[in-house]
């Protein structure tokens, strides 16, 4: 999660909403990314999606079996959908997102029994630190 926090801090410095994501397989970092929606003028350039795309390219497979995603903020519906489709084994996130989180806050797309894949999910890891990066960013913006 510390590497994901580094990505979030880099995103904040670039003027992006500070969310960072890291994908790990067998103890090795496969990919890492921070939000890039502003720089790319692309609302879908969330850290999770960028990390999933990069990991798929590195692994040469759309399915990321055996991988864990660490992300500083609870995934939104779009990212949760991508997580399910990419078959990540595990998702570990920091801060809960009461306005858009789909791992328990607003809904729980990641563990929906009607879907064909449900990763293991653990929330609240380094929650205070992950939340602080976000709250400081938005305090400075206002």
Task: Describe the protein's architecture and organization.
The structure is a single chain. It contains five helices and five strands; from the N terminus they run αββααβαββα. A five-stranded mixed β-sheet has the order 2-1-3-4-5. β3, α4 and β4 form a beta-alpha-beta unit. The mean pLDDT is 97.
Task: Give the SSE layout.
Blueprint: H1 2-13, E1 20-25, E2 28-34, H2 37-40, H3 47-59, E3 67-73, H4 77-86, E4 90-95, E5 120-122, H5 127-141
Helical proportion, percent range: 25-40%
β-strand amount = 15-25%
Count all strands and give the number. Answer: 5
Name the average pLDDT: 97
Please work out how many helical segments DSSP would assign.
5
Q: Terminal Cα separation, in Å?
A: 27 Å
Radius of gyration: 14 Å
Structural class: alpha/beta
The low-confidence runs, each spanning 5 or more residues with pLDDT under 50, are none
Describe the strand arrangement of the main beta sheet, using strand numbers: 2-1-3-4-5
Largest sheet: 5 strands, mixed
Overall 3D shape? globular
> SSE order in H/E notation?
HEEHHEHEEH
Quick recap of the structure?
The protein has helices at residues 2-13, 37-40, 47-59, 77-86, 127-141, and strands at residues 20-25, 28-34, 67-73, 90-95, 120-122. It is α/β, with parallel strands linked by helices and 142 residues long.
């Amino acid at each position: 999660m510390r590497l994901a926090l580094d990505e979030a801090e880099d995103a904040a410095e670039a003027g992006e909403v500070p969310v960072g994501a890291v994908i790990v397989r067998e103890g090795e970092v496969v990919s890492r990314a921070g939000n890039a929606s502003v720089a790319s003028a692309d609302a879908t350039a969330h850290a999770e999606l960028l990390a999933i795309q990069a990991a798929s390219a590195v692994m040469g497979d759309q399915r990321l079996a055996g991988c864990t995603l660490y992300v500083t903020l609870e995934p939104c519906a779009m990212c949760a959908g991508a997580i399910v489709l990419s078959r990540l084994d595990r998702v570990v996130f920091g801060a809960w997102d009461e306005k858009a989180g789909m791992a328990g806050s607003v809904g729980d797309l990641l563990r929906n029994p009607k879907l064909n894949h449900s990763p293991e999910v653990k929330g609240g890891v380094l929650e205070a630190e992950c939340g602080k990066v976000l709250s400081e960013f938005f305090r400075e913006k206002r």
